[in-house]
């Protein structure tokens, strides 16, 4: 179709552009000279993990990136993350393979610097260029699938429990492995929400609490509404601008606290 041909022509012209050619040659030379790394650094991985379970755990801004929209922020609600393992119990194997493939491609894009550089249009491997949006969409979709499976099979609460334990264990590992300051109040709040969600899902799965499922459902809705307010307080409550020597204005720069 004309649309497809137009897309192919655009891709070919982009690959032949001077920016692309210069970026490839320069980056290849940097990799050969070991000036750049093939894979993502541990500190950035830690930041991405904490920005998945809470927006402000590592501060509102990250010194590694030029802005909040360019760093690896994948926060989309803890329920969606906890429900990811339940999405893979679906009987349809084809869908399961699609889900696994989506996560594998996302993981490759996240960890492999040259691949992220290529997808980002050769604008640098240290930026995620708003790719957090489509990664968040994938997490939300899989989380919704997992939640639907949980409602059909409440015994999947065991997988949710394991997912919660994994998130808490990884928090401890990253704290011990990476020398990076964090905001403890937000980390503790995130872990408390994980524990509360785990408790609600476990109680919901028990037959002896079937008569209380409506109450548990309302409690879950309330927690989901309260969570972004608590974990993203600095984002949704702008502070007064701070003047630095009358030259630079910092709006909502909470990284100073970190």
In short:
The protein has 258 residues and is mainly alpha-helical. The protein contains 11 helices and 2 strands, in the order αααααααααααββ. A hairpin with a 3-residue loop joins strand 1 and strand 2.
Question: Average pLDDT across residues?
Answer: 77
Instruction: Detail the poorly predicted runs.
Output: 239-258
Distance between the termini: 53 Å
Could you give the order of strands across the largest sheet? 1-2
Tell me the total number of β-strands: 2
Report the principal-axis shape. globular
Task: Sketch the topology as an H/E string, one letter per element.
Answer: HHHHHHHHHHHEE
Biggest β-sheet: count, sense, barrel?
Answer: 2 strands, antiparallel
Structural class estimated from helices and strands = mainly alpha
Task: Specify Rg, calculated over alpha carbons.
Answer: 21 Å
- Helix percent band: 55-70%
Strand content of the residues, in percent?
A: under 5%
How many DSSP helices?
Answer: 11
